[in-house]
Amino acid sequence: MKRIGMLTSGGDCQALNATMRGIAKALYQMYGDEVEIIGFLDGYKGLMYQDYRVLTPLDFSGILTVGGTILGTSRQPFKLMREPDENGMDKVEAMKNTYRRLRLDCLCVLGGNGSQKTANLLSQEGLNVIGLPKTIDNDLWGTDMTFGFQSAVDVATNAFDCVHTTAASHNRCFIVEVMGHRAGWLTLNAGIAGGADIILIPEIPYDINYVVEAVRRRNKRGRGFTIIAVAEGAMSKDDAKLKKKEYKRRVADMLKVYPSISYEIADQIKEATGQECRVTVPGHMQRGGQPNAYDRVLSSRLGTYAALMIDRGEFGKMVSISDRTVTSVPLSEVAGKLKVVPLDNDIITEARMLGISFGDR
Ligand code: F6P
Q1: Is the CB of 184 under 6 A from ligand 1?
Q2: pLDDT score of 96
Q3: Maximum distance among all alpha carbons in the chain?
Q4: If you take atom 12 of ligand 1, which residue's CA is the nearest one?
Q5: Residue 253 annotated to the active site
Q6: Strands lying side by side in the sheet with 317-322
Q7: Which among 23, 211, 259, 282 is most buried, taking Cβ atoms within 10 Å?
């Protein structure tokens, strides 16, 4: 009898259920009744506090298209993993105990950057762990794509499509603020798909004067409205020069005045051009709703590959996709690295060729 644990950790996204279904369906095909799947509730918390459910094939039925996660999730910061909980419990030891007590053969961790760091830690502590790459940010090192990303691109693109018509009617400047944490993948892709005229991402610090110039250029050409995609982590050239601590302070000061960076940029544009500039923040909508077709396929592929890895006893790795082929990378290589948009990426050049300004020149 194989005993497999599963958990979903960190911020949720579309296709978590589709991925768990992929793993489970393949395991049931391979082992029939000779496999038992245990789902830990609310991420690593369930593993720490022995909060789990024994899942059956029925639990995985009808969830391919359902967003969120049937197991629930929570954020358990990696930096606090080595700190005891409020009752003095050693979290890592507790997780190891649960794993051993349940006599698990493997633990599948569906998670993003922080979660894969903890997965790596547990692997180094001797547990059989397989990671699966989740996040709308697509910022996980070692995989071309994470599940959730393409669905989030669709949601954010829809926001651009909706503001486009109203921006045109009113001759307004519109900013759509896109999630993505410290990476610009989501903003870049949704911005291009949504026909944005200006895209500001953390990897390419902007100069507000160039942003204003791009707005004026459009107005001169008789296009009275401008669509701007701003990543939640966008930063100006001046901000980019600051040391980490100084930058944190600068953001904290900015947040005393504005709800987010987009509102500051909107104010700066309004002041310089006199044009109305509105901000739309789709926020967590980008993580919600159904996974799109791309993610359903990707998740099914990643999930079945995880089942194959379990069968082969290939642990300590994260399932990944590279050049459209599903493969795996050692968790130790993934842990602690961020995959940001490389400045020499073709997509940047192509966006510039479309006339999109990144506000940097
Ligand atoms: O990592 C996914 C993500 O949605 C980021 O894009 C965003 O910065 C963050 O999570 C929001 O986190 P929370 O759900 O804790 O507000």
Answers
A1: no
A2: 98
A3: 71
A4: 11
A5: no
A6: 52-55, 35-40, 2-8, 106-111, 129-133, 317-322, 325-330
A7: 23
DSSP letter for 286, please: G
Query: Which atom of ligand 1 is nearest to 136's Cα?
Result: 2
Q: At 286, list the tokens.
A: 């980008």
| Lookup: tokens for 71 | 């197991």
Query: CA 299 to CA 283: how far, in whole Å?
Result: 23
Instruction: Report the separation in Å between the CA atom of 10 and the middle of ligand 1, taken as the mean of its atom positions.
Output: 9
Closest CA to 42 of 13, 68, 75: 75
Average pLDDT of the segment spanning 204-231: 96
Q: Which residues contact 169 (CB under 8 A, 6 or more apart)?
A: none
Q: Quote the tokens at residue 194.
A: 């949504």
CA distance 255 to 244: 17
Q: Of all protein residues, whose CA lies closest to atom 11 belonging to ligand 1?
A: 11
Cα separation, 46 vs 102, whole angstroms: 13
CA–centroid distance, residue 181 to ligand 1 (Å)? 7
Q: Percent of the chain scored above 90 by pLDDT?
A: 99
- In sequence order, what are the beta bridge partners of 74? none
Cβ atoms of 278 and 175 closer than 8 Å: yes
User: Is the distance from CB of 226 to CB of 173 less than 8 angstroms?
Assistant: yes
Quote the pLDDT of residue 356.
98
Rounded distance, CA 240 to CA 248, Å? Answer: 11
Which residue in 58, 5, 70, 57 sits closest to 26, CA to CA?
Answer: 57
Using the structure block, give the residue that is written with the tokens 């995985």: 60
Structure tokens given for 267 = 């104010």
Q: Which of 42, 59, 137, 139 does the annotation list as catalytic? A: 137
Instruction: Report pTM.
Output: 0.97
Partner residues linked to 229 by β-bridges: 176, 199
- What separation in Å is there between the alpha carbon of 217 and the centre of ligand 1? 34
How far is residue 354's CA from residue 192's CA, in Å, rounded to a whole number?
9
Which helix (H) or strand (E) element contains residue 164? helix 149-170
- What average pLDDT score do residues 115-121 get? 98
Decide: helix, strand or coil at residue 320. strand
Name the residue at shortest CA distance from atom 14 of ligand 1.
Answer: 11
Give the mutation target among 9, 115, 137 for probing the ligand 1 site: most ligand atoms within 8 A of CB. Answer: 137
